[in-house]
Design brief:
With 72 residues, the chain is an all-alpha fold. The chain is 83% helix and 0% strand. It starts with a helix and ends in a 6-residue tail after the last helix.
């Protein structure tokens, strides 16, 4: 493999890895924030709401990426 093609392949792989990590964070961080707020406020519903919102947001982003519109 030529050096330029290898660099392009590595760049493409890093781009996909960053997208996957970002989608994972979008799915998990709302649940974590809801859990922290539940602990501070003494409630029990913010964590599950954060889980639902994070799942929906992450899934919507995955659909956009799959459709080819997720690139900047």
């Amino acid at each position: 493999m030529a050096r330029g093609k290898q660099s392009a392949a590595v760049g493409e792989a890093l781009g996909w890895a960053s997208r996957i990590i970002a989608v994972g964070l979008v799915m998990v961080l709302p649940m974590v924030a809801g859990g922290v707020l539940d602990a501070r406020l003494g409630t029990a519903w913010l964590g599950p709401v954060g889980l639902g919102l994070g799942f929906v947001a992450g899934l919507a982003w995955l659909v956009r990426i799959a459709a080819g519109r997720g690139r900047p």
